[in-house]
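Today's session is about reading a structure prediction critically. Students often jump straight to the picture, but the first step is always the sequence itself: look for stretches that repeat, for charged clusters, for runs of hydrophobic residues. Only then move on to the predicted structure, which in these notes is written as discrete structure tokens rather than atom positions. Here is the chain we will use throughout the hour.
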Amino acid sequence: MELYGYPLKAKFNQPRPPPPKVLPATSTMTASYKNRIPYHPESFSMPWMPNSYYKAAALNPTLSPLTESFPGLPPTKIVPFISERPNGVFSRHSLDDWHRSNMTNYKESETTRHNAERLRADLTRTIKDVYQQAKRTQGESTKNLGERVNDIEYWKSELCIELDAMIRETNSLTDMQKRLERALADTEGPFQVAHKCLLNREKRMGIDLVNDDVEKQLITEIKTIRSCRERLQQCLDTVNCQLMCNKEARQELEKDLADKQMGHHIDSKCYQLKNTSRGIHYYKGVERVDATVSVPETWARFTDNNIFRSQSARATSAKLRASTESLLMGTADEMWRQFSKVNDAFTSRITETANAKSKIQTHLAKTRQEIFQIETKIQVIQKTIRDKEVQLKVAQTRLDERTRRPNVELCRDAAQIRLVQEVNEINETLRNLHQCLRASEDMLQMLVRSKGVLEHDLVVKNNSLFIDQERCMGMRKSYPSTVQILGYV
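Below is the predicted structure for this chain, in token form.
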């Protein structure tokens, strides 16, 4: 009989050993298999099966002739072949021996059958236990694999959630980095404008080249813009460092997630394997290979540390974005307020210069009018002097003619007295007129000099107005707005 379906049946498929050519004597064979069970429970590698055993025992023994090299049997076990009966007839055993042998064979057969039945029952129970144990063990392994797959799926979902959050945070921080770079680049224009305004105002002339409030505000604006640029650059460096930290945390998450996906794929494949699955093979000694590098506690702690590191980086990044937003708003407001102060100072200075120019123009017009009038008066005085000189000539001519009167005619009469008085009066009048003429000419020179001063001052004011109003304010109209400074466009 054969045990079909037994897992160890492959052990009986080994080639049957060839039968021995020399068999011992019958008594020796009987002694060899007496009280011997043909199944050894400690070894499954014996090529024993009941049918093969009986087939081997059913072979007819053949005795080979004794040779000199055959040592023979021990003296105590040699069977005598000398017959004690006459006529050459001899008997090897007695009848009692024959009966005893039969009884012994019967009992041995019953014992062997009983042992075989008990062995079959034990084998059936063992096979059932083996199947149950294998099923239980395989079920526990499958259950553990399923739990492992669930654990991996949980950590995968956590990693995916954290990775998505990190990607969003990194993108937001990258946008903030771009805004910082644009804001830093936008401050270059106002910085150059303030410098050019200072250089242009150095071209003012004369008394207008003063250290006024506009110049002070321009210097303050340059300092403010430089301070804002330094703070923006420091913040940009911090943002760049934080982006590197975010990228490192993201790479760790992606690497861990890739490992989790590969492990999930392998464990899912192992979880779905069955006894009827394809692709299962023997891998001898694989159970003695321990390639593990972690335990469940360190495995979970590793992923938890990666997630914690990413969360810390995200929190730091969020705080940095908030501080950067505040810095952008603060620097933009600070530069805009200083820009407004400079513009107000320019407006006030332009208004003041324009008022001064208007007053100069008014005074210049009055001065020109006064010069015209003085010139007219000078002409009138000169004409009056010419007229008085003619009158003086007439009076002196009369007196000179009257000096030619003869003798007693030289009378100091009323006409003589009046002529003398007239000449004296005319001389006094001419002296007064010449003094007035000189005073008028001096005044005219003073008015002309004042006119030149006013005209030069008017040129200076026009130059200052052109510099402040056209050049400086013309450039400052192109100053970027707050939206541009904040980097939204």
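Discussion point for the tutorial: Confidence is low (pLDDT under 50) at residues 1-14, 19-79.
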